């Protein structure tokens, strides 16, 4: 076995082992066993960092920098043969993208474990909480390590159930129970589309393995396949499958219209919100879009054209709409966690814009940076909540003096998410927006140019709102005067276990984009320039590792069955996926250069504008003016009601499902069962009638015969007098009667 | 020998119990536990044969040897007369009917060898059927010679899974029933009789014998519901009995028709498989329909399903477990063992394919909606069974390797998860003395262990990956997609898409139930006194929960057993297709 595979397996299975031990006997250990999952993830983190360092240190080749992808597969389900073959394998696949995700997951997870030791201290079911965290970490790692779609789906559902268990962790709270259910069911709706997408993919490509799926796209197995939706309307099967498959990410990454579960998910403990509902699980959708980027792009991908796919356009539009919608809702929320939740939805929308406009590398980079600063924000919010026992911002204010560590780390992360230059969020958001503008330029001559410009417009507006509502938190929570003196008095800085993760994460929020990797990869980059591998080298370090070429070109060809054993395919079949140079790339490069400066200026401008307006409204001169009661009243109402989307679902989808169930239940009880009972009734009645007929008819005849005979006998017995005279007289009468009758007849 | 032991050990235990005076309740329970455990132990051996490298003599060899032995036991001139006739006939699958010329008939009749000849032909036919190659541990004895009825049992991957399930659930239910005090003697002897009859149903390969066991199952079930059940137990018991009997009558008609139309006349199921392709399409059509309705009532398939919720709601917990876990599988088993191989041409008839697919979809979606509407916890689980049975029909309609295996696996998996769910309902019912879902709440905090097991059971039923239910569902879906997407007949795809919505609906009613029962605020102060599960309950539930997890993670364990036997059904159809 390859060392990378071995290391990844250890990273993957350690948390699982920890979970199994912890759930059963965890509470018998010291400190209820919290150290067990924590150390399992800690070891995983060290190993992931080792892989990450290896990736950064590897000499670049013409396919890009970083690790050579490795894969190992094991048999899992195998049925049938030939065309009907169903062959599902469990596989581990490691490439640069996986390693980046491993670092994100283990790092955030480890810090959240440590943080939870402080935050959850003394809670009921403390041991279970850590067990669930361990299970979640395992599932999430499995998701990013899987070598095929079906196992992604499996782990996808498993992270869903962990999320369910953790949202509903405060099991006695009705609201938590409802939120957990809502999260799972909303995700299931998305997963339904994902599953159909997988079914279609298996049907065409015959496999769910990434390399096979990409190969099927590259070799034209999807060409000329269409699906007729209604008469006259037909789309290509690849587009159809791509859109359905995107429903999965829509659910998990909370994209409109399936975003409704994420804000409710804040019912869970705050560390859970940070780990699952901000940094890792919700990013799984973006990961999947990135991983399956060639599939969503279609055959154009292999001509280097990432900009003409209808699926990607839909992704960009949905992402853009989500970004702006959630950002506006966030403005009106008063619960600090809800603001952060909508901010997460909005940022996930940003990532989807990135994927949609063709730069999944920057989308994943935004995922990478967002994980750190958003986790830091959530944990900071948790620290505040822990201190004042309230989530409402109207109970806060002026806390910066009481909680300096929390304040400074929160401020740094807020700057990062708002797009303040030289912090990590600035780089990633900048990258996405530049590409979005370039995308608009690229399609500038198209008659529907406006549609192509929408992602950028949505994005830049959302960026302004982001700065606005994030600084609103800062002003309302940490500045100004305490609104609740009593709570303020009792507030205190959190202790080390909670403060340490904040510091680490805010440090990463500063350095994760530009500075640290720049130092680490400086040599690799110069090496790459020497190698003169033109398209493998980019201005930006991250893009070197997560590039379209790195995604497919050195992909192992996978495994096949040889003599009843799974064997790697022969070497000559490898490297079958190549991205060709094309005009589109050059053209896009040109647009990109054009878009660079405008975007840079625009994003700095909107960030400053947002911060300034926010200061103006919540701390500055307009502070005393109550805007929401005045000119913005109507709009505020819409925002507080979340654009009535939840309300709409409740009145339509939920109500209809409920109605359908009532109708079915009624139908079953009153119609189907009635028919059965009616048959029973008819049978009983029939038997009644038959019984009557039998008693009075058949048996009646018999009884009548008997009765008549008896009566006759009783009557005739009187003839038997015992006197000879009577008998002779009777005989004579009889003879006369016979003779009379005889004569009559003759 | 092993199979007969598996069938008759529980029966013997029941007989022993009859001799124990009714006041020795503990002794009765111990004897029945011993009986059921021995039966389970034997079943483990039987199951073990499917994992071993040398599984023993397969049925085709068994019959070939038996033919030789029968021949060599005859006189020399009789042998000389029979051998050439035998050699001249074609017994390879599909053999259609075996007819004799007048001269041959005369010769055989002259030597008074009619019965021997009939026996030889039956065995020869059976040994040629591909399915016989997958059958192990054949036992074949004459029972009623005048009608060619045999005590004929054997086991293959299809039946072994269900035999294992019956024995396991039987044993666990006896442990669970330890607290039964009402008419203990009657309860346990009837329960053991039930296990015996179930074993017989899954193992017998003589149609007549199968029918006898099929009917014997009804009897203890009727009394178990009717005596130990809830308030409406008499209604439920009679409904169950009569409904199933209607199905049995149709089955009986089909059986007799097959007997008289086959040449030679036989009840041997394996031989019938070889003769079946010779029957006319119309004849097969009616046979398929009669058998289908007979089995469909048992599954149960919409619209024949309404006996199920009533029977479940009224039945005591262990009886519900057997009812959902094993009895429903008799119907599914019947489809695989009888409908497809014995009416091969009809089973490919578009009418029946569409019917299976549509009824499957109705079962899935309609069952899920009905489950959502239930107020009674047990009734909800009963409707969820109806919903889950739909996947079996869908898998059969698609008729690909994967979908058929998924369907068979679904039977097994549902047997585990529904059994677990009924036990879970039973546990909470014993404490709360009611089953109204809306009146529960907050059980999770009071009974953490119990809730942990409940999560496994409910999520297995929901089809969560990592638990067994997912494997069968995904196999049915993938296989059905393969089957339905074959151009140009893609009309059935819409049915698959509707069926897929079942995964959302299932999540809705399962999670809604979990929310109302286990989560939220404690609705009743009385619930705060609930004790977590005791040893008796734990022992009866934990093995099922463990199996749910193990088979969800390592499905190969059971698929390797099922695969050869299920694939051969598909293969046989393919052979006929050519």
Describe this structure in words.
The complex is a heterodimer of chains A (746) and B (578). Chain A has helices spanning 3-25, 35-57, 96-119, 126-145, 149-167, 174-205, 210-218, 237-252, 261-264, 270-279, 284-291, 293-297, 310-332, 336-356, 360-388, 404-418, 424-442, 449-478, 485-490, 496-511, 515-531, 541-545, 548-552, 583-618, 633-640, 645-716, 724-745, and strands at residues 70-79, 86-94, 226-230, 233-236, 559-562, 565-568. Chain A is mainly alpha-helical. In chain A, the strands form three sheets. A two-stranded antiparallel ribbon of chain A has the order 1-2. In chain A, strands 3-4 form a two-stranded antiparallel ribbon. In chain A, strand 5 (559-562) and strand 6 form a beta hairpin. In chain A, helix 2 (35-57) packs antiparallel against helix 3 (96-119) and helix 14 (336-356) packs across helix 17 (424-442). Chain A is elongated and about 150 Å long. Chain B is an all-alpha fold and 578 residues long. Among the domains of chain B are: 59-134, no CATH class; 348-578, no CATH class. Helices cover 74% and strands 3% of the residues of chain B. Chain B contains 25 helices and two strands. Chain B has helices spanning 2-18, 25-49, 59-72, 76-88, 102-110, 114-128, 157-176, 184-203, 207-228, 233-261, 269-275, 281-298, 307-314, 317-342, 344-347, 350-373, 377-398, 401-432, 443-446, 448-462, 468-484, 493-500, 502-517, 535-553, 556-577; strands spanning 136-144, 149-155. In chain B, strands 1-2 form a two-stranded antiparallel sheet. In chain B, strand 1 (136-144) and strand 2 form a beta hairpin. In chain B, helix 1 packs antiparallel against helix 2, helix 7 (157-176) runs antiparallel to helix 25 (556-577) and helix 13 crosses helix 17 (377-398). The longest helix of chain B is centred in the C-terminal third of the chain and has 32 residues, at 401-432. Chain B is globular and about 90 Å long. The model of chain B has no long low-confidence stretch (mean pLDDT 89). At the A-B interface, strand 1, helix 5, helix 6 and helix 26 of A face helix 10, helix 16, helix 18, helix 20 and helix 21 of B.
């Amino acid at each position: 076995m390859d060392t990378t595979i071995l290391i990844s397996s250890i990273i993957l299975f350690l948390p699982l082992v920890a979970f199994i031990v912890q759930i059963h006997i965890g509470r018998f250990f010291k400190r209820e066993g919290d150290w067990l999952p924590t150390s399992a993830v800690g070891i995983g983190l060290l190993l992931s960092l080792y892989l990450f360092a290896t990736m950064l240190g590897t000499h670049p080749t013409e396919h890009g920098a970083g690790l050579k992808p490795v894969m190992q597969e094991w048999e899992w389900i195998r049925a049938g043969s030939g065309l009907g073959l169903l062959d599902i394998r469990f596989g581990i696949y490691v490439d640069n993208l996986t390693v980046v995700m491993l670092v994100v997951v283990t790092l955030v997870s480890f810090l959240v474990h440590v943080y939870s030791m402080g935050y959850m201290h003394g809670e009921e079911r403390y041991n279970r909480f850590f067990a669930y965290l361990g299970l979640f970490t395992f599932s999430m790692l499995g998701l990013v390590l899987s070598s095929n779609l079906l196992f992604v789906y499996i782990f996808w559902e498993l992270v869903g159930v962990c999320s369910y268990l953790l949202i509903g962790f405060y099991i006695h709270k009705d609201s938590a129970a409802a939120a957990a259910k809502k999260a799972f069911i909303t995700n299931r709706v998305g997963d339904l589309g994902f599953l159909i997408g997988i079914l279609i993919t298996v049907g065409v490509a015959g496999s769910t393995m990434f390399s096979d799926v990409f190969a099927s796209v590259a070799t034209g197995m999807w060409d000329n396949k269409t699906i007729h939706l209604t008469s006259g309307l037909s789309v290509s099967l690849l587009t159809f499958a791509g859109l359905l498959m995107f429903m999965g990410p829509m659910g998990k990454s909370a994209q409109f219209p399936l975003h409704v579960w994420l804000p409710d998910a804040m019912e869970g403990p705050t560390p859970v919100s940070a780990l699952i509902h901000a940094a890792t699980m919700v990013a799984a959708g973006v990961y999947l879009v990135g991983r399956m980027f060639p599939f969503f792009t279609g055959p154009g991908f292999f001509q280097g054209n990432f900009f003409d796919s209808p699926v990607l356009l839909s992704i960009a539009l949905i992402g853009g709409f989500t970004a702006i919608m959630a950002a506006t809702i966030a403005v009106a929320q008063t619960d600090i966690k809800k603001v952060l939740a909508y901010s997460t939805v909005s940022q996930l929308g940003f990532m989807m814009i990135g994927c949609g406009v063709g730069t999944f590398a920057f989308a994943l980079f935004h995922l990478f940076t967002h994980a750190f600063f958003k986790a830091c924000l959530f944990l900071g919010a948790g620290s505040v909540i822990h201190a004042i026992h309230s989530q409402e911002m109207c109970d806060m204010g002026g806390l910066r003096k009481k909680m300096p560590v929390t304040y400074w780390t929160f401020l740094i992360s807020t700057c990062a998410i708002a797009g303040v230059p030289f912090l990590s969020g600035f780089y990633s958001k900048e990258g996405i927006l530049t590409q979005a503008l370039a995308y608009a330029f690229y399609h500038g001559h198209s008659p529907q140019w406006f549609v192509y410009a929408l992602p950028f417009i949505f994005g830049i507006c959302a960026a302004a709102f982001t700065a606005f509502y994030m600084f609103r938190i800062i002003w309302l929570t940490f500045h100004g005067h305490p609104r609740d003196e009593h709570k303020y008095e009792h507030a205190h800085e959190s202790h080390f276990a909670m403060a340490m993760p904040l510091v680490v994460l805010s440090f990463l929020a500063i350095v994760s984009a530009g500075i640290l990797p720049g130092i680490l990869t400086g040599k690799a980059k110069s090496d790459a320039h020497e190698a003169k591998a033109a398209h493998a080298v980019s201005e930006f370090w991250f893009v070197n590792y997560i590039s379209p070429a790195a995604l497919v070109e050195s992909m192992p060809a996978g495994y096949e069955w040889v003599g009843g054993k799974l064997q790697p395919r022969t070497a000559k079949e490898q490297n079958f996926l190549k991205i060709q140079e094309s005009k589109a790339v050059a053209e896009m490069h040109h647009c990109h250069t054009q878009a660079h400066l405008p975007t840079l200026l625009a994003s700095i401008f909107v960030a400053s504008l947002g911060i300034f307006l926010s200061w103006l409204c919540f701390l500055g001169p307009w502070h005393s003016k109550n805007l929401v009661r005045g000119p913005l009243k109507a709009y505020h109402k819409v925002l507080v009601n979340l654009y009535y989307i939840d309300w709409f679902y409740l009145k339509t989808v939920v109500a209809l499902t409920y109605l359908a169930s009532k109708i079915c239940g009624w139908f079953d009880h009153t119609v189907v069962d009635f028919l059965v009972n009616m048959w029973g009734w008819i049978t009983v009645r029939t038997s009644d009638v038959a019984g009557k007929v039998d008693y009075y008819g058949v048996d009646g005849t018999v009884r009548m015969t008997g009765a008549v005979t008896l009566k006759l006998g009783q009557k005739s017995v009187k003839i038997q007098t015992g006197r000879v005279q009577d008998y002779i007289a009777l005989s004579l009468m009889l003879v006369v009667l016979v003779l009379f009758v005889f004569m009559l007849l003759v | 020998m092993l199979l007969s032991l598996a069938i008759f050990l529980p029966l013997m235990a029941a007989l022993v119990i009859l001799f124990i005076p009714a006041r020795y309740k503990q002794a009765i329970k111990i004897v029945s536990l011993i009986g059921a455990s021995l039966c389970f132990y034997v079943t483990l051996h039987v199951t073990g044969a499917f994992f071993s490298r040398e599984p023993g003599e397969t049925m085709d060899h068994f019959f070939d040897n038996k033919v030789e032995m029968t021949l060599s036991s005859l006189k020399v001139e009789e042998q000389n007369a029979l051998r050439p006739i035998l050699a001249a006939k074609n017994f390879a699958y599909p053999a259609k009917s075996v007819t004799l010329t007048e001269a041959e008939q005369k010769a055989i009749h002259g030597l008074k060898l009619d019965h021997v000849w009939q026996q030889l032909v039956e065995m020869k036919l059976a040994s040629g059927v591909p399915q016989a190659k997958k059958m192990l541990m054949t036992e074949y004895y004459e029972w009623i010679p005048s009608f060619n009825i045999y005590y004929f049992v054997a086991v293959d991957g299809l039946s072994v899974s269900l035999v294992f399930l019956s024995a396991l659930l039987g044993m666990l239910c006896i442990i669970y029933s330890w607290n039964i005090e009402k008419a203990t003697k009657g309860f346990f002897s009837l329960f053991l009789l039930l296990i015996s009859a179930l074993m017989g149903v899954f193992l017998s390969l003589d149609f007549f014998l199968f029918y006898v066991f099929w009917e014997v199952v009804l009897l203890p079930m009727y009394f178990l519901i009717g005596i130990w059940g809830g308030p409406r137990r008499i209604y439920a018991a009679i409904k169950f009995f009569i409904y199933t009997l209607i199905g049995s009558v149709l089955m009986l008609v089909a059986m007799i028709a097959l007997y008289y139309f086959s040449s030679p006349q036989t009840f041997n199921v394996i031989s019938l498989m070889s003769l079946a392709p010779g029957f006319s399409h119309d004849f097969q059509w009616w046979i398929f329909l009669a058998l289908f309705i007979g089995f469909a009532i048992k599954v149960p398939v919409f619209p024949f399903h309404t006996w199920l919720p009533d029977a479940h709601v009224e039945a005591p917990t262990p009886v519900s477990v057997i009812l959902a876990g094993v009895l429903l599988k008799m119907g599914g088993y019947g489809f695989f063992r009888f409908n497809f191989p014995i009416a091969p041409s009809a089973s490919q008839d578009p009418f029946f394919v569409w019917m299976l697919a549509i009824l499957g979809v109705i079962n899935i979606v309609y069952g899920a909606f009905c489950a959502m509407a239930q107020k009674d916890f047990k009734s909800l689980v009963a409707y969820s069974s109806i919903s889950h049975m739909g996947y079996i029909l869908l898998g059969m309609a698609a008729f690909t390797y994967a979908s058929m295996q998924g369907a068979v696996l679904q039977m097994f998996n549902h047997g585990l998860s529904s059994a677990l769910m009924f036990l879970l309902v039973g546990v909470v019912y014993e404490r709360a003395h009611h089953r109204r879902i809306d009146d529960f709440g907050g059980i999770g905090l009071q009974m953490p262990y119990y809730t942990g097991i409940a999560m496994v059971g409910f999520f297995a039923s929901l089809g969560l990956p990592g638990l067994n239910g997912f494997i069968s569902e995904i196999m049915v879906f993938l296989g059905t997609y393969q089957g339905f997407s074959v151009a140009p007949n893609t009309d059935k795809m819409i049915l698959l898409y509707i069926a897929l919505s079942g995964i959302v609906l299932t999540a809705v009613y399962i999670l809604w139930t979990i929310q109302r029962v286990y989560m939220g605020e404690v609705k009743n102060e009385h619930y705060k006194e609930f004790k977590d599960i005791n040893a008796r309950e734990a022992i009866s539930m934990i093995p099922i929960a463990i199996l749910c997890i193990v088979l969800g993670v390592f499905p190969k364990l059971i698929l390797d057993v099922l695969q050869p036997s299920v694939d051969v059904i598909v293969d046989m159809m393919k052979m006929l297709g050519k």
